[in-house]
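Sharing in case it's useful to others searching the archive later.

Someone asked me privately for the predicted structure of Mos1 transposase HTH domain-containing protein, so I'm posting the question and my answer publicly. Question first, with the sequence:
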Amino acid sequence: MLLEFLRGNNTMEAKRNLSDVFGEEAVTARTCQRWLAKFRLGYFSFIDESRSRRPSNISDEVQRGMIKINLTLTSIKTGFMFGIHQTTALDYI
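And my answer, the predicted C-alpha cells:
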C-alpha cells in the first residue's frame, strides 16, 4: 500500500494493482482509501498501537458462566445479551 501511495496512485488504482498481484479478495477499496488517507496525513507507522477498550457491562466470569450453561449461544446472541460486539463475544466462546 505504501508503494502505491509513493507512486501517487488513487484508491481505485491501488486496489486494482494490489488485486492483480495478490488476488481479488486481498484488499477492499475502503481499506485502500483508509491507508492512503493516513499516508497523506503523514502517518507512516506500522506498529500496532494500544487501543482503548470500552468497559464491559458485565464481568468475564458471568459471561463465561452463561455460555457454559447454554452452549447453543452464538456470538451474535451473546453480544446482544451482554451489550458487547459479537467479535468480543467470540473471546468467551
